[in-house]
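Hello,

Following up on my earlier ticket. Below are the two sequence lines again, exactly as submitted.
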Amino acid sequence: MGGTHVIDAHQVVKNYGEFSALAGVSVHVDAGECLALLGPNGAGKTTLTEILEGYRTRDGGEVEVLGVDPSKPTGAWRSKLGIVLQNASDLADLTVNETITHFARYYPNPADPEQVIAAVGLTGKAASRNGKLSGGQRRRLDVALGIIGNPEVLFLDEPTTGFDPEARREFWVLIDRLKLEGTTILLTTHYLDEAQYLADRVAVIARGLIVAHGTPDSIGHRGDAIVTWSEGKREMSESTTEPTAFVAALASKFDGEIPHLRVRRASLEDAYLELIAQDRDIHVGEQ
Amino acid sequence: MTNFIRLDAVGMGMGRVGIELKQFFRDRESAVFNFLLPMILLVIFGSVFGEQDLGDSDITFSQYFVAGMIASGILYTSFQNLAISIPMEREDGTLKRLQGTPMPPAAFFIGKIGMVFVAYIAQVTILIAVGVFFFDIDMPTTSFAIFTFIWISILGLIATTLLGIAYSVVPKQGRGAAALVSPVVLVLQFTSGVFFVFTDLPQWMQSFASLFPLKWLAQGMRSVFLPESAAAMEVNGSWELGLTAIVLVVWIVLGALLATLFFRWTPRGEN
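Thanks for your patience. The regenerated structure is below:
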């Protein structure tokens, strides 16, 4: 420990009674990097994130965030963190502007509330009560609260759940801008395209363990191509490193065209589903 | 930077008073239940029983009741308000969000106490105005009575605020919190000489109520709003102001202890 990583978790263990939520998880995130934690519900994503945020205690392992053990949080340390929790519904009776302006007071070096409200696209809603915002707008308010303190590290726990595709795109642009400014980001998400777009590295977590770790393009057997076609009413699929030879062999089986033939490179989603499928006891979440 | 944050706890706490008050008055349920209810009760009880005299005296029931309602107001704006709203804030993530910011915990409690004081001052002003205009309540005239009113209010608010923060761990969910809190307030009101004249209550009920702050708050407020001669109608023939101060200070110490031991930012099992 005491290394150069902004987030450094080593062999983290967390048990709830008999249930092992984290069975020795190690991840690290460097300055300015974005790591995406992927995994089905109940895999331990939020448990790990909340240990790093200083909300939950751990039963084993070493953790440092910005050189501080999160189990001993200080105000100075918290002022460098931005936290976007899952499903918030608090502060319903305040307006967007009141909320952001008030929370700016807690930080020694806050961003300009008006600029933050503009950055998340809520300028038109600044005078609205938070309780009247739509799901997507409410989530953008949570992000605004996460970045009002000009954080060095930003935790985003499923930030775009419930967004329409356009809102998700806009959100990605916002996070991209924070990355350009050098913010270190730990993102948990169910959306593989989101991880592909935002993350420099991806860690797949299942049953309290990291089952794969790497860049979004290198996870799983990504050199493989996936060939899909139909045989009668059945959808067929084959993963192969030699798609040309495979299709040639397949062509000889059919008289003329291969029905519904498709050849594509394996996506992060394919790799993810394959990794998760090795863990059949676990329900595959929202995918 | 640590010093910066510590020194600023009071400033941030003052900022939180404004935020807390906005939330208190904008939440219609809390505004009716914790703020308006004593006035509604005063109008109802005053209209039904207000003209009756107490015993052989020429003191109206309204005069007796307004003292009890002001004492109850202390309990409504602090204990009932906090013991219901804090479990809701714990459930909806308000507390968790604050815990994740550099806000010193002291600022949160300063904000709550400030909100309670401002809400109480507004409530007591309206209560007295309603009493004077509709039920001909006599206002305290001596500076001693006004001084008593102020210290009873302050000690009472501090004690019941701390007890409200401590009791906020009892409701496991925000949704059902009111059902676990308002019966406590109701029972204390019935047994502490708010709805009925205290000396008319059975002995065991009087002894029970004497353990809790409301009986002493109501008695102290009666010393403010009833003529000196009415002291003879109290249990021990006196207002017992010294004993009242002692009881309230004991509850402040106990409340501070319970609040420190039991207060939590996140729901049980979430750690």
